[in-house]
Amino acid sequence: MNIHEYQGKEILKRYGVRIQEGIVAESPDKAVEAAKQIMAQTNSKFVVVKSQIHAGGRGKGKVQGSEQRGVALAKSVEDVRQISENLIGKVLVTHQTGPEGKKVNKVLVAQDVFYPGESEPKEMYLGILLDRSKACNVIMASTEGGMDIEEVAEKTPEKIVKEWIDPAVGLQAFQARKIAFGLGLQGEAFKEMVKFVTSLYKAYVDTDASMFEINPVLKTSDNKILAVDAKVNLDDNALYRHPDLANLRDITEEDPLEVEASSNDLNYVKLDGNVGCMVNGAGLAMATMDIIKLSGGEPANFLDVGGGANAKTVEAGFRIILKDPNVKAILINIFGGIVRCDRVATGVVEAYKAIGDIPVPIIVRLQGTNAAEGAKIIDESGLKVQSAVELKEAAEKVRAVVANL
Ligand code: GDP
Ligand code: MN
After folding, report:
1. Yes or no: domain 122-246 corresponds to CATH 3.30.470.20
2. What PROSITE patterns does UniProt report for this protein, alphabetically (predicted)?
């Protein structure tokens, strides 16, 4: 589960990580109020207005049909109002949102932390994530933080230092020092960074996160280290241990079809192809997507209806697949192990009748317990559904359908 920057920063603050302070606002009026408060607290006329969406690249991203960037420095209260009006309710397009962009519902009005002082403010990068290949957490750090970190990773990977942390042992003090040293820090800033990394790692572990990415981590002109951004991903499977964190979910940021699927206990992931598929079991679903590709089609989704597929789950699955306008054919591939094929076939027929006329060809492959009875039910239903027993046969029928698209 992804959360917003302002929520990620609240978590960090609880763990003693110094952050760029801010107040979240849902309207230009509230943003102005927030700005006045921050300006009074910081004794500065500048604040930054930051759109809150579940995607990065906001600083370079632009609002659809305007020149407004997703993160902007405001030099007066009037600026704050103008920028907030340009952002709230509008669609922001960044390199992470895709061309359709994401609607901005809230902005974070934050203190300006790039103030002048004894040294230049310096943007660094710090990320913690899970490295499954090493069964470790990995901390990545770079002196080249800011908005072009993807380019740094691609062109000058030597500028990213990595430190692997054995989760059973935890972060050792020498490792935090190695990161701070790798970032070229000295004196007060070095000490601050050691503290920063240590607190950040604790936040990452305690919240069962799979990613904490702070870009930029800023060394201010007076040598403080603070988190200016926070991109956090929490492990869905651990959310039951953290009801307070589960409450941070913002379903307006998620794909509506995926939300509907999860409320029906279906595992659905939307993809870009034209052949929808409904399968029981994640492994079989992956294999089915391969079959669709080998047949010349592109999978429109991953959908695992689980072990106990019945008319209700099949119907919910059908409805979700059909809401995707790209779907031009559907392949149902069910292995009757726990569930009997005749029961699934009855479910398919009932679901079909409940939904009404389904405008795309459907191929149903049933194998396992009572496969023959299942195929008979499909064939005799009088519906425009083709049955197949062997996977090869199903693949050929998909190929024939796809060839006609
Ligand atoms: P992202 O583009 O979605 O990653 O959003 P960030 O929160 O990282 O902000 C983007 C950029 O805005 C940063 O890299 C900074 O250059 C700039 N920025 C953020 N906070 C401030 C600030 O307080 N003052 C100024 N002048 N610039 C800021
Ligand atoms: Mn950032």
Report:
1. yes
2. ATP_GRASP (PS50975), SUCCINYL_COA_LIG_3 (PS01217)
